[in-house]
Amino acid sequence: MSEPALSGLAVVDLSSGIAGAYCTKLLADGGAQVIKIEPVQGDPLRSWSASRATIVDGDDGALFSYLACSKQSVVADPITDAEFIDTLLARADAVVWSQGPGAADHPDFTPQEIHGRYPHLIVTAITAFGLEGPWSGRPATEFTLQAWSGGIVGLGRGAPDRAPVHVGGQVGEYLAGAYASAATLASRMRGGAELIDLSMLETAILGLTYYPVSYFEMLGRPWRDARRLTVPGIARAKDGLVDIGCGTAAQWFDLCAMTGHVEWIDEDSPLSITQQANEKAEELYGWVADQTVDEIRDLATAFRIPNAPVAHGANVERLDHYVERQSFVVNPRDGFTQPAPPYRTAPPILRHPEPAPRLGEHTELYRSRNSIPGRESGSATARNAIPRDGALPFAGLRVVDMTTFWAGPSCTHLLAMLGADVIHVESTRHPDGTRLIAGIPVTEDRWWEQSPIFSGLNTNKRGITLNLQSDTGRDILKRLIGTADVVVENFTPRVLESMGLTYDVVKAIRPDVVMVRMPGFGLDGPWRDNPAFAYVIEAAAGISWLTGYPDLNPFEPYSVGDPNAGVHAFNAILLALEHRRRTGEGSMIEAAMVDAALNVAAEQVIEYSAYGSVLQRDGNRGPVAAPQNLYLSDEVDEFGRLDSWVAIAVATDEQWLRLVSALGDPEWAAVGELATAQGRRTHHDLIDGHLSAWCAERSRDQIVETLWDAGVPVAKVLQPHRQTEIPQLTVRGFFESVEHPVNPPTRHSTLPFRSTRGPERVHTAPAPLLGQHNQDVLGELGLTVDEIAQLEADGVIGTSPAR
Question: What are the DSSP E strand ranges found in 633-785?
């Protein structure tokens, strides 16, 4: 039995909230010893329930019990126990910090102070906007960060006659936690000793928007300029809701045939497939309404059209695919249902979940030792000290990247931006799908090189082409794999299997290889061969269920499923590399997109199985703040519409008092019931009416200035291509201009964290042209110039799409 990958790694958890808790959960799942230092009253999550279930004193909320599996709890006061806390920090390898009650709120235990006193540590700080910059310390919530990121309107989600809507379920918190875990483990690859400054705004940008700045600057137009329903998207069948995807022209043509309307197929139509589908919406919805969910899904699967049931807390664990794959497990302490880890490995290098600790359960253990067991002297054990020079974490690591579209390339892009030699393998017959979605006419010279999405996902990589349908192409790929540390692919399972490139074959070529497979629904189970795009993954996991208005079908977020899968797969790779460092053994990782999505949607199945509550979508309201909503300002937007919104979220009673004061202490706000969160929820319509009237007479700048200066979480609902107007991102250097041989210099997003060890610049090379590095890479494999020329003549390699 393999030891968990992070056994012996000691992490002090000074965080509050979901982001820090999920970060340390992922580390604990990997085998790390996570010591959670809590105030006397405990982490606020111990008393949290999204459905506001009653939690008895001395008990813990189910979400806390899920996120705290396998951790230890120590109670310490930063004033009276400072020496004790310092002792734990001195013996640890890493610290995860976010603002909250207890030690994290004391000036002696800020991230900067901890890093200064204990320079050997990895100190990972999770904040809304970053530790420095003009917005550092400004109040924010998940909701207002979604607004600032552009994620609320990012992909045109929603109905044009209503306010845009946020993505439900606090997904931004989980995304931040996954990135924080990855940043911590990546730091460990180069020996730690750094302060990592992670911005939740930046993780929201990467997780909820689709490279909108690059798209706008390269093509001169926004990705979307209006809200429209996705058709058919999530629709009502005879017996429930079903999600039917239509993300490519081929899928639209197949959908026309499936519904008996081949006459709708028009390959020369000047309209986009979205526009064509919207024109036929009434007929499509009528067809769906006449079928059962199973009938529709059977047909769609046969036509290779992405599809999924719409999951929620009450039905998700009973869906046949998840039952067969054992996607859910029983919480080891409290017996409710929770998702299994977001990735699977062979050999098993994850820890089996252990019960969450009661408040202060391990205090006496650590006080009696006055240290971390096994760390009585020195700041790190020899086993965990990884001496490295100043190189990037993945310098010297070679990755064969056989991925396409968004999920897979986003994973390998993180490796490339942190120093790995990532070789992106395409085919002239089947280039990476993101090359084909920019809407560039095929009559334009090198149209396939003008995709801002491909550019945004593939900087710092090298690119080659190989026809993997040919024996020669597969033989060359195997030679390339022989030089690789990591191989990543995200096809449906049957594709690689039909090529004979199973893990056993790859392992025979390179015994210590880390092979990562990222299918949508996993390598087994009844849905395994279904094509998967973000929207069907979101529906199948429950994320869609919480997005939208209660009187309408759910809206597809259309964003979270892919980048969320990418950052989780990246975490899994880091665990496998650590396992290889310790044992010399490679691994096979199954990082299914839907498993990652089930983890960030965990609260739904947890609330239902623990308390019998099915969480519901509620427009822009939510469980964290009251009031919480979008309010229309008096501005006309850049498209000439009265459609400029602000987001306001009052998360505490103190913030409510600040809001009332900023509004001029109006009489309506003096009602005693409004002083409490429950009272504000009860009278949310009343508050919304008054706030709507107040905002309607002001510009967004006036609203934000008045409320933010008063300490109230507030944000403009930005069009995502306006992200560069945020001064905080400018100060942090989140966007870097990238030169390109075909496209104009264009700003690209970078990493959502900054480090005291750099890099100063992230993007070192533009995304590769199709087959740009054929000569270089094949030459490194020992092929001669003549042999390479013959491969091109035979169509095995090339530099333009095959006709």
Answer: 645-649, 714-716, 735-738, 746-749, 753-755
pLDDT band at 380 (very low <50, low <70, confident <90, very high): very low
Distances (CA, A) of 803 to 568, 742, 800: 36, 21, 9
- Please give the full DSSP string across 239-254, using - where no structure is assigned: TEEEEE---SHHHHHH
CA–CA distance, 797 with 56 (Å, rounded to integer) = 66
Give the integer Cα–Cα distance in Å for 396 and 771.
22
Supply the pLDDT for residue 164.
96
Is the confidence at residue 395, as pLDDT, over 70? yes
- Residues 440, 336: Cα–Cα separation, whole Å: 51
Per residue in 587-600, pLDDT (tens digit) is 999 999 999 999 99
| Contact criterion met (CB below 8 Å) for 749 and 205 | yes
158 close to 717: Cβ distance less than 8 angstroms: no
Q: What is the pLDDT of residue 283?
A: 95
Enumerate domains of the chain plus CATH numbers.
10-157+169-208+355-376 (3.40.50.10540), 246-305 (no CATH), 626-712 (3.30.1540.10)
Let me know: does 726 contact 717? Beta carbons within 8 Å. Answer: no
Task: Using alpha carbons, list the distances in angstroms from residue 672 to 52, 510, 680, 690.
Answer: 21, 70, 10, 16
Name the residue with tokens 């001169």: 220
The band of 383, judged by pLDDT with boundaries at 50, 70 and 90, is very low
Q: How far is residue 376's CA from residue 389's CA, in Å, rounded to a whole number? A: 27
Burial class (CB in 10 A: 0-12, 13-18, 19+), 46: buried
Task: Please state, in angstroms and rounded to a whole number, the distance separating the CA atoms of residues 199 and 176.
Answer: 8
Segment 740-766 shows an average pLDDT of 97
Q: What is the DSSP letter of 316?
A: G
CA–CA gap between residue 115 and residue 111 (Å, rounded): 6
Asked if residues 550 and 616 have their Cβ atoms less than 8 Å apart, the reply is: yes
Mean pLDDT of 205-211: 97
- CA 74 to the chain's CA centroid: 30
Average predicted confidence (pLDDT) for the chain: 95
| pLDDT at res. 803 | 80
| Rounded-to-10 torsion of CA 719, 731, 408, 319 | -60
Beta carbons of 666 and 690 less than 8 angstroms apart: yes
Tell me the whole-structure pTM to 2 decimals.
Answer: 0.97
Backbone dihedral angles phi then psi of residue 465, each to the nearest 5 degrees: -120, 145
